[in-house]
């Protein structure tokens, strides 16, 4: 249903083009949940913005992103507007700033269905608020965002995204800004509703816990490039790429409460790594060779590392 | 919202009361009385005049007398224009001053907001550039230079518009209104431009664009409200500037408004007239500040409880 | 190498070409007004009865001519500039200092004192500006000092509210708590911690006050309430110029042009200062 081929995102910074995302390819089938995992600065959110045509003014996307056969990247803005909000919806990272502070919550929801009569759109908005378990939804729809808690606002965002029953939902770190206790509730709600409506999800996160809870498949991003692509269970059981291994080792696990020590990956991601040749992970990799620094490894059978597939 | 309005009106009333009291006593502290300057009159005549205007009473009693009149809407007699009451003088000038002020603020808001929006939406385009240059001029050239130059060029050289006075209907209004509005056009367009650019960058705009509602609806329904909040907030202080400006404009263009009387009244110690005009202007200013606050609260729900 | 925030700001300011050019222009005008009259053997109040209403003649004793009292126009404009610029800078300084102290005390004290002090500001804001100036300069007996005091008294309100907001947020910060725990008195905390931390704000807004004060002075002098003949100020020179603009535009153009240049450059200097000290991106 969604097929991304060789997606690139460049930003013009002080007259130079800096590559943030380099040749990302992935595909999602109907009803599937794909996790896009990586550290901050790995370009993962920019992938979503590129798909939605929401890149910052100085950004430009290249490659192909076929949604039900249409290329999202070359589409006219008007044609894209026919898909956005209806067939493809998005949930943003920070529910505190992603809602319009000057408008009633119900109006903001109903606006998604602006082609319907106002009363009918409002009715469906309230029904959707009930489905995301907002108590006393009819009254709360008349309230403004600042009168909601963070968790409640993210429920509102989810309701807004699912209101038009989209085929694809893009979620940009939907739980990062929330309390840990709220995070699980929101994720479960998201999974539940998506399953009901057969909506496919592309969820961006740096939190492997989120992946474990929600995703069918995972794409691991580093320095704007895909390192590994695998089924969620397979990745957790046997991560293949050195970066994936490091990522998993650095995540605390419930099953092993007395695990010796949490490990960390030495070093920090290099800035603008996607602009340079070589494997972006090379400076931090234990298996690094001279070739890794010079030649960019290709993604073959779900992994971009010669040292592992050799 | 209703309690917000009530609270705001109540505090406005107190400000007005403080304004009245302060002006009254400051006026009485000013050295020199209305009849002590440049006139050789006998002490008896002076005493008689002062008695007639109750200037011989203790100050606090004069104050109470003034408040008594005020409650009945009587601002007292003018000391300088003997045959007129302050109500007469203000009443005759007010329609002209109001017309001038009304059109000036309307032109300033409409022109300033549209130029600022055009600049923000087509950044570095020709409109943006011209507005910027125009804005710098509006700030650098004060209206008491611009006014006379406009008279010289448009009226005396080209003969397009009347030089001064209020005898040619709308044609005599064009220059005064435009010149009075100009500094505010400059400021409002700058303010609108920068706040719209900022507003378009807010995260909730991205949410709105993600709904697929089209760029115009994003602008109208989501960006404009936030962008205009600082502009509305400025309209309160702008009124104060407009009052100052209208005194100048009425002087330069010899318009029969209220402002023309003020300087004269102040220099001649015409207590009741100065008081009356202060009250009028102060009342307007307070009223506009309240209206500004109410409009902002109406536009921004977060302000309603503060 | 660690650089102090002030030097960083200075470096940013120096990169702003418009602001630097305007600073130089302003310095040039200030030098002209204060040093220029030294090169003439007469003052702006001396009449040269042999040259009444002399036209512009750059190689005569009166390069820009004389007015109809035979007074040298250039010298009068320079002397008027001394008055306007002095009032502008001293006035902004005084208003800034008063406003800072008032706002710092109100914001730091909080509670009832803060409410009372801010209510007073609110009332003064309710006064139409001109009226307050006129009343005050009458109360103080007229004259230049009274005019100066009146202008300052009406312009300290805005710095006070700005500084108060800043002081309020500072008062909640840890280092104030630490100072208090260390036994500092409230007066010492206000003077040594609150006031210095609001200095940048005051500098930026103070630079906006200078043109405002100059404008006030010239506007009052234009109306005949401010600086009075025979002493020159840009305001009363412009007023005299408008009376004769039909026959002789130069009497309006010279003082008016200089005033506009000063306001123009102060505007860009203030912009430059704001951008330099507040690097949050502005457009």
From TrEMBL, chain A:
Membrane topology, from the record? Peripheral membrane protein
Domain of life, per the record?
Answer: Bacteria
Location in the cell reads: Cell inner membrane
Q: Which GO terms describe its molecular function?
A: ATP binding; ATP hydrolysis activity
What the entry lists under Gene3D superfamilies is as follows: P-loop containing nucleotide triphosphate hydrolases
Q: What is its main location?
A: membrane
Work out whether the entry's keyword set contains DNA repair. Answer: no
Q: Does the keyword ATP-binding apply?
A: yes
Keyword vocabulary terms for this entry: ATP-binding, Cell membrane, Membrane, Nucleotide-binding, Transport
* Classification via Pfam families: ABC_tran, oligo_HPY
Q: Which InterPro entries match?
A: AAA+_ATPase, ABC_Ni/Peptide_Import, ABC_transporter-like_ATP-bd, ABC_transporter-like_CS, Oligopep_ABC_C, P-loop_NTPase
Naming one, the record's GO cellular component terms include:
plasma membrane
Looking at the record, the residues that make up the ABC transporter domain are 4-248
Recorded hits in PROSITE patterns, A to Z, give: ABC_TRANSPORTER_1, ABC_TRANSPORTER_2
Q: Which GO terms describe its biological process?
A: peptide transport; transmembrane transport
PANTHER family per record: D,D-DIPEPTIDE TRANSPORT ATP-BINDING PROTEIN DDPD-RELATED, OLIGOPEPTIDE TRANSPORT ATP-BINDING PROTEIN APPD
NCBIfam families, per this entry?
A: oligo_HPY
Q: Hey, which family's this protein in?
A: Belongs to the ABC transporter superfamily.
The protein, known as: ATP-binding cassette domain-containing protein
Q: Record the organism.
A: Stagnihabitans tardus
Automatic annotation (TrEMBL), chain B:
The membrane topology term of the UniProt record is: Multi-pass membrane protein
Q: What is its main location?
A: membrane
User: Where would I find the ABC transmembrane type-1 domain in this sequence?
Assistant: 94-292
Q: Does the keyword Membrane apply?
A: yes
Source organism of the structure:
Stagnihabitans tardus
UniProt key word Membrane: yes
Name the record gives this protein:
ABC transporter permease subunit
Q: Which GO terms describe its molecular function?
A: dipeptide transmembrane transporter activity
Q: Per UniProt, which keywords does this protein have?
A: Cell membrane, Membrane, Transmembrane, Transmembrane helix, Transport
Q: Which cellular compartments is it found in?
A: Cell membrane
Query: Which spans are transmembrane here?
Result: 12-30, 100-121, 133-153, 173-191, 227-253, 273-292
Automatic annotation (TrEMBL), chain C:
Instruction: Give the signal peptide, or none.
Output: none
List the SUPFAM superfamilies hit by this protein, alphabetically: MetI-like
Q: How does it sit in the membrane?
A: Multi-pass membrane protein
Give GO terms for biological process.
peptide transport; protein transport; transmembrane transport
- InterPro entries, per database record: BP-dependent_transpt_permease (IPR050366), MetI-like (IPR000515), MetI-like_sf (IPR035906), OppC_N (IPR025966)
One GO CC term on file: plasma membrane
- The UniProt record lists the ABC transmembrane type-1 domain at 81-270
Q: Which domain of life is it from?
A: Bacteria
Localization, UniProt: Cell inner membrane; Cell membrane
Keyword terms of this UniProt record: Cell inner membrane, Cell membrane, Membrane, Peptide transport, Protein transport, Transmembrane, Transmembrane helix, Transport
Mind telling me which residue stretches traverse the membrane in this protein? 83-104, 116-139, 145-167, 188-210, 251-270
Principal place of residence: membrane
The record, for Pfam families, names: BPD_transp_1 (PF00528), OppC_N (PF12911)
Q: Which family does it belong to?
A: Belongs to the binding-protein-dependent transport system permease family. OppBC subfamily.
Question: What is this protein's record name?
Answer: Oligopeptide transport system permease protein OppC
Source species of the chain: Stagnihabitans tardus
């Amino acid at each position: 249903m969604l097929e991304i081929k060789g997606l690139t995102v460049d930003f013009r910074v002080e007259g130079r083009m800096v590559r943030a995302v380099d040749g990302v390819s992935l595909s999602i089938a109907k009803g599937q949940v794909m996790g896009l995992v990586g550290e901050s600065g790995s370009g993962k959110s920019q992938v979503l913005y590129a798909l939605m045509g929401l890149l910052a003014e100085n950004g430009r996307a290249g490659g192909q992103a076929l949604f039900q056969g249409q290329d999202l990247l070359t589409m006219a803005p008007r044609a894209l507007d026919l898909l956005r909000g209806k067939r493809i919806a998005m949930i943003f990272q920070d529910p505190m700033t992603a809602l319009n502070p000057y408008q009633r919550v119900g109006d903001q929801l109903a606006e998604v269905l602006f082609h319907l009569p106002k009363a009918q759109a409002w009715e469906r908005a309230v029904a959707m608020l009930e489905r995301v378990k907002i108590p006393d939804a009819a009254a709360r729809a008349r309230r403004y965002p600042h009168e909601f808690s963070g968790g409640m606002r993210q429920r509102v965002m989810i309701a807004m995204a699912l209101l038009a029953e989209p085929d694809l939902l893009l979620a940009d770190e939907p739980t990062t800004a929330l309390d840990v206790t709220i995070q699980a509730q929101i994720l479960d709600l998201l999974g539940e509703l998506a399953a009901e409506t057969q909506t496919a999800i592309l969820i961006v996160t740096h939190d492997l816990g989120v992946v474990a809870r929600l995703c069918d498949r995972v794409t691991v991003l580093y320095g704007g490039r895909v390192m590994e692509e695998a089924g969620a269970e397979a990745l957790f059981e046997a991560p293949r790429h050195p970066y994936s291994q490091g990522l998993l080792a650095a995540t605390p696990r419930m099953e092993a409460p007395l695990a010796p020590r949490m490990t960390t990956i030495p070093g920090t991601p290099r800035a603008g790594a996607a602009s340079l040749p070589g494997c972006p992970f090379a400076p931090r990799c234990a298996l690094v060779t001279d070739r890794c620094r010079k030649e960019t490894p290709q993604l073959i059978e779900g992994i971009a590392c010669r040292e592992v597939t050799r | 919202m209703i309690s917000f309005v009530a609270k705001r009106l109540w505090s406005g009333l107190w400000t007005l009361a403080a304004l009245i009291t302060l002006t009254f006593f400051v006026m009485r502290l000013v050295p020199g009385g209305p009849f002590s300057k440049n006139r050789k009159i006998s002490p008896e005549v002076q005493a008689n005049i002062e008695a007639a205007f109750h200037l011989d009473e203790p100050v606090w009693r004069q104050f109470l007398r003034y408040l008594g009149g005020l409650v009945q809407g009587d601002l007292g007699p003018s000391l300088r224009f003997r045959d007129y009451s302050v109500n007469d003088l203000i009443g005759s000038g007010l329609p002209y001053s109001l017309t001038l002020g009304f059109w000036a603020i309307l032109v300033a808001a409409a022109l300033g907001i549209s130029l600022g929006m055009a600049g923000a939406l087509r950044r570095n385009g020709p409109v943006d550039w011209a507005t910027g240059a125009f804005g710098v001029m509006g700030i650098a050239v004060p209206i008491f230079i611009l006014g006379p130059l406009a008279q010289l060029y448009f009226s005396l050289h080209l003969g397009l518009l009347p030089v001064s006075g209020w005898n040619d209907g709308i044609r005599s209004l064009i220059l005064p209104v435009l010149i009075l509005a100009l500094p505010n056009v400059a400021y409002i367009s700058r303010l609108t431009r920068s706040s719209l650019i900022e507003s378009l960058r807010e995260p909730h705009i991205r949410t709105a664009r993600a709904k697929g509602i089209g760029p115009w609806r994003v602008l109208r329904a989501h960006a404009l409200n936030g962008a205009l909040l600082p502009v509305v907030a400025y309209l309160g202080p702008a009124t104060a500037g407009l009052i100052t400006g209208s005194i100048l404009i009425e002087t330069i263009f010899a318009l029969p408004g209220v402002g023309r009387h003020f300087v004269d009244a102040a220099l001649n110690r015409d207590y009741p007239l100065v008081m009356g005009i202060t009250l009028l202007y102060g009342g307007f200013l307070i009223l506009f500040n309240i209206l500004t606050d109410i409009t902002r609260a109406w536009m921004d729900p977060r302000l309603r409880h503060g | 190498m660690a650089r102090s925030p002030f030097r960083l700001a200075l470096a940013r300011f120096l990169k702003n070409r418009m602001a630097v050019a305007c600073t130089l222009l302003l310095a040039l005008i200030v030098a002209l007004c204060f040093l220029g009259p030294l090169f003439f053997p007469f003052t702006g109040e001396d009449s040269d009865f042999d040259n009444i209403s002399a036209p512009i003649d750059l190689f005569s004793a009166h390069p820009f001519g004389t007015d109809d009292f035979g007074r040298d126009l250039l010298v009068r404009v320079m002397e008027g500039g001394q008055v306007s610029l002095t009032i502008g800078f001293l006035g902004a300084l005084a208003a800034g200092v008063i406003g800072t102290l008032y706002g710092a005390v109100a914001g730091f004290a909080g509670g009832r004192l803060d409410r009372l002090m801010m209510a007073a500001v609110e009332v003064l804001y309710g006064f139409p500006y001109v009226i307050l100036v006129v009343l005050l300069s009458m109360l103080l007996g007229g004259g230049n000092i009274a005019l100066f005091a009146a202008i300052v008294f009406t312009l300290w309100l805005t710095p006070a509210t700005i500084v108060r907001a800043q002081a309020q947020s500072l008062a909640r910060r840890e280092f104030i708590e630490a100072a208090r725990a260390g036994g500092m008195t409230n007066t010492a905390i206000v003077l040594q911690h609150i006031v210095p931390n609001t200095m940048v704000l005051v500098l930026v807004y103070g630079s906006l006050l200078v043109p405002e004060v100059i404008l006030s002075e010239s506007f009052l002098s234009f109306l005949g309430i401010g600086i009075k003949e025979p002493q020159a100020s840009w305001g009363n020179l412009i007023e005299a110029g408008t009376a004769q603009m039909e026959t002789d535009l130069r009497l309006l153009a010279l003082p008016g042009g200089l005033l506009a240049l000063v306001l123009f450059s102060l505007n860009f200097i203030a912009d430059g200062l704001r951008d330099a000290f507040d690097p949050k991106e502005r457009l």
